[in-house]
Automatic annotation (TrEMBL):
Cofactor-binding details, from the entry: Binds 1 divalent metal cation per subunit.
Binding locations of a divalent metal cation: 17, 150, 212
Gene Ontology molecular-function annotations: metal ion binding
UniProt-listed InterPro entries: 6-blade_b-propeller_TolB-like, SGL, SMP-30, SMP-30/CGR1_Lactonase
UniProt name for this protein: SMP-30/gluconolaconase/LRE-like region family protein 4
Keywords assigned: Metal-binding, Zinc
Domain of life, source organism: Bacteria
SMP-30/Gluconolactonase/LRE-like region domain ranges (all copies): 17-270
Length: 299
């Protein structure tokens, strides 16, 4: 496998998620300072806005307005042209925990995942929903029975939604119907059966990978951030690992392909995902490296 040289693009954050390459900049959410930032390829950082209830997934409507997952109050926010934030949709009644990552399609429909249980309190693991929010803010459940639906991708033809299930040891996919509804779930990749348990430690111990965020490339492979493996892996459909980048003491929790040619892999790195630890020490950083195959699809 190639020896990828990693560089630090930005550092000193609490826990970064939602990496997106958009308008010639990298965008990211920092959970515990509540800020959304942009970073140029030269490392210049700008703060875009504050989201008091913790930002995560990001996306854009066709008219350029940004959508933001506001995690703790389970609302999708919309950033207006003047920079003001308004409520695009309230998902409280449709979700089982903090809302999290999302992907927005070419029509402006947002597919939003959620935790499903209180992970930081050590609650029993529960499966949960995937919610679609239409451009007018109307929301409905489009899939259920998912275990921590997280980073999601839409193929370049707009016909397939791929969803990382962080604590299911698998990546799922759905056919996207013309009206935005989803067909039945099927495996995009399955890394092995898990025990019938609602204990998170048990599930993690039995998992080969915990797919968090990631990035889809032109060959149809996904760079998958492994939330338990201190690595990012490039996986082809079916589950074969094509490449692995180890990151030593830091885990990788989100990723994006971008840069002018789409071949820079950006990675959100932190020592762990435990809220108390990350609030106490602002050690999160964005790493970057060059890869061979450029970005494709959404986000």
């Amino acid at each position: 496998m190639p020896n990828r040289e990693l560089s630090v693009l930005a550092s000193g954050y609490t826990y970064l998620e939602g990496l997106r390459w958009h308008d010639d900049r990298l965008w990211a959410s920092d959970f515990y300072t509540g800020q959304i930032i942009t970073v140029t390829q030269q490392g210049a950082v700008d703060r875009v806005c504050l989201v008091p209830q913790q930002p995560s997934g990001l996306g854009w409507l066709p008219d350029g307005r940004m959508l933001i997952s506001s995690m703790k109050d389970r609302k999708v926010l919309r950033r207006e042209k003047d920079g003001a934030l308004s409520v695009h949709a309230d998902l409280s009644a449709l979700t089982g925990g903090h809302i999290n990552d999302m992907v927005v399609d070419a029509q402006g429909r947002a597919y939003v995942g959620n935790f499903g249980f209180d992970i930081m309190a050590g609650a029993p693991v529960r499966t949960t929903t995937l919610v679609r929010v239409d451009p007018d803010g109307v929301a409905q459940v489009v899939a259920d029975g998912l275990c921590f639906p997280n980073g999601s991708f839409i193929t370049p033809d707009g016909k397939t939604l791929i969803v990382n299930e962080t604590f299911a040891n698998r990546i799922s996919e759905f056919d996207i119907q013309p009206n935005g509804s989803l067909g039945p779930r099927r495996d995009w990749a399955n890394f092995g059966e898990l025990p019938d348990s609602d204990n998170l430690d048990t599930l993690i111990a039995a998992s080969a990978i915990a797919p968090d965020g990631g990035a889809l490339d032109e060959e149809g492979a996904i760079w998958v951030a492994d939330a338990i493996g201190k690595r990012i892996v490039r996986v082809e459909r079916g589950g074969r690992i094509l490449e692995q980048i180890d990151t030593g003491e830091f885990g990788i929790f989100a990723a994006a392909l971008g840069g002018p040619d789409g071949r820079t892999l950006f990675m959100a790195a932190a020592p762990d995902f435990i809220e108390a630890n990350r609030r106490a020490k602002p050690q999160a950083r964005i790493l970057a490296t060059r890869v061979d195959v450029p970005h494709a699809g959404r986000p």
